[in-house]
Amino acid sequence: xxxxxxxxxxxxxxxxxxxxxxQREALLIAFVRAGFVVYGKAFDVxxxxxxxxxxxxxxxxxxxxxxxxxxxxxxxxxxxxxxFRRYFFSLSTAELLVAQNLGKRYRFAFVNTKTGSHLELNLxxxxxxxRGIYPTWSIQx
Length: 141
Description:
By secondary structure, the chain is an alpha+beta fold. It has helices spanning 2-11, 21-33, 57-62, 93-102, 123-129; strands at residues 16-17, 45-48, 67-75, 106-112, 118-121.
């Protein structure tokens, strides 16, 4: 559902872009040069305010205040309410660390692909709305 969720965000006309592999690399380079830690898999879409050449790490570096990285959390469940109450999702350690490191430059986009509703929250807002937190470790052999 993440791909469908990205289409919902793009269709909202609010500046969301799914970065290409080249753009993703340029974004990572620009953020690292500015002293931020970003894991490549910890974001799905980018919101750009105004015009920024996402293919150029130098241009991105000059425009970091116009760029917000987003991790999509998507569902197609009709049980999830428009304000996303009843939504249960996982948060990876990489997402948590990137959100802490980037602060205002990182947000979560909660998208219901069935209803088209979406909600944008920063890490503090996510924890503020949490009714329960259940830490887990995911291990791959």
